[in-house]
Structures
1.
Amino acid sequence: MPRAPRGTLPPEGPTCLRHSSNLSLCNCHTQGMLPCFLGMYFMCPLTLDQNFGLLIFSWNLKGPPLSLQDSMALATALEAQLQLREVAGIPLQASTVDNWNQIQNFEAKPDDLLICTYPKSGTTWIQEIVDMIEHNGDVEKCQRAIIQHRHPFIEWARPPQPSGVEKANAMPSPRILRTHLPTQLLPPSFWENNCKFLYVARNAKDCMVSYYHFQRMNQMLPDPGTWEEYFETFISGKVGWGSWYDHVKGWWEIKDRYQILFLFYEDIKQDPKHEIQKVMQFMGKNLDETVLDKIVQETSFEKMKENPMVNRSTVPKSILDQSISPFMRKGTVGDWKNHFTVAQNERFNEIYRQKMEGSSIHFTEL
Ligand SMILES: Nc1ncnc2c1ncn2[C@@H]1O[C@H](COP(=O)(O)O)[C@@H](OP(=O)(O)O)[C@H]1O
Ligand SMILES: N[C@@H](Cc1ccc(Oc2ccc(OS(=O)(=O)O)c(I)c2)c(I)c1)C(=O)O
């Protein structure tokens, strides 16, 4: 089905993509037969992933068709939702910013474990590892829900669906939660309750590449533009959850002051059993060798790519278009070498040196 490029409106106004006609003329909207969704590049999906549902306006028009002017105004409002907004200089989703008070007032509990990552650092991977450890390697228990719903995402908000905070509040303890927030934006109660934090860092170059392909396929995010353009966007930190450098430095700097297990994607890749053992000990669990081996196997990239509970295949194509780039894309270390030019690499290395100056963090890949 043809789709208007992100961030632009077709000249005739928004379109009902289900029926490929102008929204204001489309019968399904005017007769109130269907709960319909404003067109543009939103595809009237009826099976939206819960997390994204409220991005999209829904209505049942029983009255006269929308005028071109009204439909343009609605489309503009929707487009505004796609833009990131800032909290203390960090770009976040608009709906997260609207819900900021609730997020900041979240009441953590002392036995909470918070999975923390910069986007595209292996969040899904560590979530699956943690879930398998929590459930003693029981694959069926880990199939109870898609991974997005297993560990509440504390800054996620899509009213009127329950927010990440509301989901966490409804969850029995001990809770496992997740966030992409940098340290300075974390709800203070996590520090006050001396919670456990599990941070996974991934080298900046592979993160950039992974985020670029994710923005290409995620229809709810601004189009990343060309690779050259995205290179600048990423370096300047104008992406969701802000600058990679500040995020990683921030968590690294405080790791010895709190209960933080700081892991590297590259280490998990190189020796998964060893790193999974560290996670197990941090969680206060003791699993025997055979269970550990099973967890290594079940959380391999190859297995997870085929697992519908983690590979995002349940998310509609109108949101995550995996024909553009799969969510489980490559899962390797060093894919940046297939993207960076020699000049980009030299420039990146110099910027990296400046931004990371004074930090003792060391990545095996960089
Ligand atoms: N089991 C696994 N092993 C290695 N990488 C994995 C993995 N599961 C997911 N990933 C990778 O983690 C990245 C997604 O991170 P997140 O879950 O934080 O969004 C993707 O990287 P690539 O785009 O480089 O393939 C994805 O392929
Ligand atoms: N600005 C909007 C829309 C919006 C929608 C999606 C979105 O992207 C992401 C959501 C979740 C993510 O984390 S993860 O679940 O994949 O780990 C990521 I990375 C990107 C964003 I940013 C914004 C709104 O406010 O509604």
2.
Amino acid sequence: MKRKLGQSEAPASTPTETPVTKPEHAEEAKFEQAEPKQEKKQPKQDPSFAELGLDPRLVQAVAKQSFEKPTLVQRKAIPLALQGQDVLCKAKTGSGKTAAYVLPLISGILKRKSTDPTSFTAALILVPTRELADQVFKAIELFSAFCSKDIQAAKLTENVSDVVQRSLLSNVPDIVVSTPSRAWHSINAAGLSLEKLHYLVLDEADLVLSYGYDEDMENISRTLPKGVQTIMMSATLSAELDTLKSIFCRNPTLLDLNEKMGAEDEKLSQFYVKCGEDDKWLIAYLIFKLRLIKGKCLIFVADIDRSYRLKLFFEQFSIRSCILNSELPINTRIKVIDEFNKGLYDIIIASDEKSEIFGDETADEETSKKQKDKPESDQPKKKRKTQKDQEYGVSRGIDFRNLAAVVNFDLPTSATSYQHRIGRTARAGRTGMALSFVIPKELYGKHKPTSLRSCENDEKILAKIVKQQAKQERTIELYNFSKKEMEAFRYRMNDALRAVTKVAVREARTKELRQELLRSETLKRYFEENPAELSHLRHDGELGRSTRTQAHLKHVPDYLLPKEGKKALSSQEIGFVPFKNADAKKRGHKRGKPSGRSFKVGGKKRDPLKTFKVRRKP
Ligand SMILES: Nc1ncnc2c1ncn2[C@@H]1O[C@H](COP(=O)(O)OP(=O)(O)OP(=O)(O)O)[C@@H](O)[C@H]1O
């Protein structure tokens, strides 16, 4: 019989082990059964954290985080997890899934420790990337702020030797956060013991197998004791979840919390621009030099070279940005995300290499079938030996705080990947904007220097994205930038592009890697000793010392601007995203039109896009 959280002594009762796979409203009925007394006291739809049954120290910690009330996924998952049920939960990006599993898990450990203070690793949280492991670890630290003596956590994703790892684990952390491969390695080489494990969490569960962790997962599953309570969290459903469910869960409760946003409540505005390959660079230059998007921005590009190229291109115009890619050391990556979240930088250029793991959705089914039927040895290797960190990922799960906009400079190759990329903005009830560049078929390959293979099928991918977003009652709208107004800037864009040669990109890439490897280790030691001085080194400094510098490009002369002038552009820019949880209704928020000053179209308010001759399609 499977032992579950809160049921360690009592025999597991059959009703809770009955498979419960039902829509959200049906699951409400189960809550009513489980907690009838609470039901009478408090209206069901809005329980507070304290009413979810969590340890008071956690309620205190949550209040310190200024979480006023639990999100939907927290309201649903926490009571189930506290009851000891296996939970398979699908909820949208940025909906607060981390707290939904971390809080009940800590609460359960505290409850057990109140009667049995022995130390053992009671919880293993597996995540697909090292960045995410760091984020979850930090969340545990925050939530256990008022019980830090009772809860020890460790993350296994640092680059440390087995000896160091072993000594870390000899402290017997209650909670271990890791990627599957590091966890399996530590079980074998660094003394991680799962003998008494109570809880297993798979965060971003649909991604775990695509990252090539299948073998590690199987191995780990064999070492687990019987009766481990499993919680799986995901933003999308996939066949992989079924596989994992069959390996790790027994009779899980399925929470499919597909919150369909009413148009009034939608916080994310989505736009796309159809343009030629070189126009992408021109529009990006205009958007960022003229600050048409205000606030912090995450730009996704298809590969590492492209990210350096865009950074060097921006440098030509004195636009500062920093880079995230799988080549950079983990310490650097974590620091870049930390500093971005602290507000030190405005622009991150991330190469979303993992977008490829979702496959090219435009590849025909016949091809994929043929591929599947091939012997295993002919299958593409999931874990290639490259210098890249296979455990890297920024489009999944990473919580970029107060991100105003996601720009898909290169469209991803799948709608799933798009969903996760745009999920980095408009998180936790905030507003956000997503802007994607789409290369029409007839313009593909027309500008060789900037052409990119993965953009050949942009239109097909866009069709899938539109369909996928429509299922969530979301729209993605077309923006037309005025060719005439842009032309004045074209020669500058061409000048800058010419300066960013392949050699310059290669040099910048090697140089940064070398520098980061060096400072990553130095920094690690330095910041361990001086944790308050995180701004010591900035990551958005210039890379292009070997690129031709063109001083004239750094400024925008007034004569290049539309006749309404720069002031008109900079006072009310495209994509200004207010960060307050503004009441959309009061401000006349309409479907597909972002709320906020700058997007009020027509009427007395001025449309900044019109001042720049940028118009929505009629
Ligand atoms: N109850 C709450 N009230 C306010 N903010 C919250 C609450 N719960 C979580 N948050 C905040 O919401 C943000 C998103 O949370 P989290 O990263 O857990 O989302 P997620 O659902 O795991 O997203 P993803 O699917 O992208 O991984 C975080 O900044 C977190 O601090």
